């Protein structure tokens, strides 16, 4: 796959993932977080296993290891996301979680023991300032501060996931890894649901099943499973840049579909975070042009 096609694939992957915040928020009104995750990911694993049965039967040790690693890491991300999403707006949750775009280069710099570039530090500062303004918009919500904290931790874990995905997708078959990742997430969520509530609650109404099926087919079967395939051909930092599509989709849907309030503080927070993402993206484009020359 060419880099151009990989970018196109990741564009649609992150857009699909962005819709999950709205669908999950609707389901959280009636279902427990781990029940939603268990049903969502087990059904997604079943669908993809049937469609790509030959790949599953020929899975390698590297693919199995990669799927298990990403499944464990993403279960942690989704757990933090779901419990945070119950307490704050979906658009705010998505924007904060996708601070991963500036966390990835910071973590990378720490791993190689090299001080981050000044522009990276500026982007990180703007993103943190934006989170601060968004936090103020949730101050009147019950447990809003806790929701912000949980989503910030989800962002930290998400950055680790992006870096881990870049590595394991090069060691095994990326699509097989993505499918096994969903199966691992489903099994772990099922176990967590049984341990915390003693049972799994399934959707009961037509609208609940509609939101669940959208999560299964659009957000998980496509959004999660095909991310390793796209990332196989792109650097981890470039994939992190493209995650801006995720919060933009979630924010637009939150405002126009869920009727979430848009306030001055929220606008300032949105602008600061999006500015951080734009500046970082501009740095990547300039670096690519320099490489070409």
Structural class: mainly alpha
Oligomer: single chain
The percentage helix is over 70%
The general outline is globular
- Note the run of SSEs as H and E: HHHHHHHHHHHHHHH
SS summary, helix count: 15
Uncertain residue ranges:
none
Explain what this protein looks like in three dimensions.
There is one protein chain. This protein has helices spanning 3-18, 20-27, 33-51, 53-57, 61-85, 90-97, 100-111, 118-137, 144-168, 174-196, 206-222, 227-231, 236-242, 245-256, 264-292. With 293 residues, the protein is mostly helical. It has one domain (3-292). It starts with a helix and ends with a helix. The relative contact order is 0.22.
Task: Give a brief outline of the structure.
79% of the residues lie in helices and 0% in strands.
Outline the secondary-structure elements.
Layout: H1 3-18, H2 20-27, H3 33-51, H4 53-57, H5 61-85, H6 90-97, H7 100-111, H8 118-137, H9 144-168, H10 174-196, H11 206-222, H12 227-231, H13 236-242, H14 245-256, H15 264-292
Give me some keywords for this one:
mainly alpha, 293 residues, single chain, 15 helices
């Amino acid at each position: 796959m060419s880099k151009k096609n990989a970018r196109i694939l990741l564009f649609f992957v992150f857009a699909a993932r962005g819709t999950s915040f709205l669908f999950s928020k609707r389901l959280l009104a009636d279902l427990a977080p781990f029940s939603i995750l268990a049903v969502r990911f087990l059904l997604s694993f079943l669908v993809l296993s049937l469609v790509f049965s030959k790949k599953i039967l020929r899975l390698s040790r590297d693919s199995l290891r990669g799927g298990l690693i990403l499944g464990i890491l993403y279960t942690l991300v989704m757990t933090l996301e779901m419990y945070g999403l119950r307490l704050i707006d979906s658009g705010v949750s998505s924007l904060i979680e996708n601070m991963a775009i500036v966390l990835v280069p910071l973590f990378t710099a720490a791993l190689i023991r090299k001080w981050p570039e000044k522009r990276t530090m500026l982007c990180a500062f703007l993103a943190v300032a934006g989170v601060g303004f968004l936090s103020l918009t949730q101050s009147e919500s019950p447990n809003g501060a806790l929701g912000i904290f949980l989503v910030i931790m989800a962002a930290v874990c998400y950055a680790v996931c992006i870096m881990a995905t870049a590595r394991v997708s090069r060691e095994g078959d990326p699509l097989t890894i993505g499918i096994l990742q969903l199966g691992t997430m489903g099994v772990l969520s099922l176990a967590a649901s049984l341990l915390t509530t003693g049972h799994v609650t399934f959707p009961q109404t037509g609208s609940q099943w509609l939101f669940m099926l959208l999560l299964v087919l659009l957000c998980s079967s496509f959004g999660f499973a095909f991310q390793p395939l796209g990332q196989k051909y792109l650097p981890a930092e470039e994939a992190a840049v493209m995650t801006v599509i995720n919060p933009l989709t979630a924010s637009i849907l939150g405002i126009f579909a869920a009727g979430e309030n848009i306030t001055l503080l929220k606008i300032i927070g949105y602008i600061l975070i999006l500015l951080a993402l734009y500046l970082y993206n501009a740095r990547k484009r300039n670096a690519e042009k320099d490489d070409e020359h």
